Queue: 3 jobs
Job 1
Amino acid sequence: MSPREATNATDFGPTKELSKWIASVQLEDIPEDIRVRAKYIILDGLACGLMAAHLPTCEKAVKALAALEPADGGDAVLFGWGGKKVTPLTSALLNGTFIQGFELDDWHSEAPLHSNSIVLPALLAAGQHLQKERAVSGPQFLLATLVGFEVGPRVGRGLHGAHILSTGWHSGAVFGPSASAASVTKLLGLDAVGVEDALGIACTQACGLMSAQFESEVKRMQHGFASRSGLMAAFLARGGYIGIKNVYEREYGGFLKQFSGGNGKTPQYLPEEVSKGLGTTWQTNSIRIKPYACVAAVHGAIDCVRLLQQRYPARFQPAAVQDIRKIHIQSAPVNFHHGGWKAARPLTNTGAQMSATFAAATQIIHRQVLAAQFSTEMLENDEVWKLVDLSDCELAPDYPHGQHQVTITFADGTSASQLLKNSRGVLPPLTNEEIVEKWRNLTKDIMDPEAVKEIEEIVLSMDTLEDISPLYQLLSSKTTNSIA
């Protein structure tokens, strides 16, 4: 047995089964509706990255990391930075930061991670680096993307999905290195042994503290860390570097064992989920597109308010809002632990987008929760803060994941209540047509309209293209700060 194949476990377990599937799957093995949906998901991710590229936190990150780059730059572009090039690892990190930069990007409803911010930056960086050897075709890129979309959630399900948020880990930053490594190994054409090495190298880099959701700016970057880690892992494996074998199911120091420690679950972790349903059950179907610019855990609270506004329009007219005396938000455990904390001044836009109290108050005052509602000026809106001060959140331990109830009490002693099992974007999911509308709305005022049109055409016809290299330069088109 060669060193690359050596292991202390000779059985054919979930890690090897997953690695074999990654190495062997072909685009024609994936149903057409899944392939089509993936193109629209990609378009949404690019929209999120382009609109956030010049937010203050993103610009700060670019300037800090650019100081570490070689004087002659690199071979990978940054979204929206007018042709600026950096090394592939920095490109993956920063473009991942951009896509996650404003809480508008996709999320997986069962094993929460933001797939686009992990997979796309790694693949785009790898594709540009590979131009020295060969062109990357649209079908190759689409297949590699779908591999990442399928792998990340399966790894997450092995850790009981959303429950990991309740234990304080940032789920996507933990699940994510596996997704980006899987995608890039597929693009590189590694065999199953090489894939397993890459997954093992990626998993040992996984980390992410959920305390980043409060005052820190690093929450935006943690999926970028995952993108960079998987990219690095794949190229190390391509170079023959040996990774951890059977990394998911290993008992001592294995990925699932370590990240599930103290989670209170029986069984503690679920290794079979890592490879369950490969080729028959498509996790891409559970990738959701956000209609609101905030963490998905508070979307249900926003929708409860929105439905109350529709049911009782007179109660929510600007002059009548002053009669609100209390806003009581009840939410399921994961939603509560992630977004059920009460906002307090001073608050960054990251914190505001993570708080159910701030999001619900924003919906009441502004009747929408989009990027514009989190500008510096809006974060100091006294009308919103008056309602935040009247709000509280309660853990509803018996609620299933995603369920919320909002009860609003008025000055005359009456109240109105709305219970919602799932938010818009989950049930119903946004349609492909709605995703295109979101793409156009997010990009229309920040970049050249012709570039917007060309990117849309390339992405939605990706499965027919022999070379996607024109996309690289288009994504580097100069953008402006979307909330300036």
Job 2
Amino acid sequence: MKRLLFTALIAMQLIHGAAANTEKTLTYAVPHWPPWTDTQTYPYQGIDVEIITALADKAGFKLNMLKCAWKRCLRLLEQGEADIATNVLKKEDREVYLHYLTPAYRTNLDYVIYTHKGDMHTVRTKQQLYSLPITIERGAHFPDEFSQDKNIQTRPVSQTLFAIKQLINQRANAVIGEEYQLDYLVNRFDTNHVLEKQPLIFSKTINAYIVLSKKSHHAEAVAQLSDTIAQMMDSGQIESMKRDYLRPNE
């Protein structure tokens, strides 16, 4: 009898220990969306990977990263098989199964122009773009100030990466894209530093959030995680992490 009781106590301790470890681990659903998340090699990289790692550490959680295509990531969150995700826009259907941690950690999109050095004068006004075609990613959305101006000629290609490579090889005049994405691609592929960013910026307001599944075992941590995000935002840590990640290599 004593032996059975001892065995039962040991089993309960093991189960409790495993549960305790699970309680302090967040499963992060990670799509491939550089520079925010890059899952081509492990350990995964990206601005969001660094932000979520710092957030988990400050809040006292370990992090388990789960690679998934974006639609599958959302399904995993809905089912509670993943706990947390980044860069999520608010949509009515998503609010059914997601806690949006506040504040939003991204509040605007800036779109910038890159040109080949020496090809143009400094571009400060939209009117200076009227004389040349601007290469864009087909199907991408841009601020109305750019997309609805019929005086701007656009030249679509299938991917922004192709546009940057064409610009490097002087087979495109100018490329427009979301600032973080273009900075990342230029930093990675413009090894001879032949491109330059123009001062003209088109901006669009957004609110992108870090989210927690409502079926997560850690749903009670919403306030704690939100408070931690607010502290990271107020201190400038998140903005600094964004900029540091994209700083050109010396």
Job 3
Amino acid sequence: MQYHPQPTAAKPPQLSLFEGLIAHRLTPFGEVARAPQPADDCLSEMTLTGSGDHCRQLLAPMLRELSEAADTRWLTLIAPPVSLSQNWLRETGLNRDRILLLQARESQTALELACKALVSGCSHTVITWFPRLDKASRLKLRVAAAQGNAQSLNIRLGS
């Protein structure tokens, strides 16, 4: 014997939860939608070890390519090492009209400066020189890069 509730004049019949889901072809325990996470490909890291001259030789073609990218926004270097001087940039043939050099100050850390440069959307790539990035810093850089539609590159120089 099955129970069939009789509709009352005041209220229309109500479908049970699962009947409603089946009627609409919905899954009752589907995955909960989460806020989108920044893409992992917004942040890249590379480590260069060896003599300073050798590291600069490896770095020069990459920076040259980035400085001549089809994207007309800046290539921004945040607090580059002293060895990447204005003279070195000139000698390696980088397009210095498309490079922005920013130095951190007491009021603003290099991480904060990098995040601001990324979020602004004025740079296609922002390069930092952190010896080590913790999980929170990585997330900040990824989120900022995603918001500014930019790339973040951290270069670790070792000996």
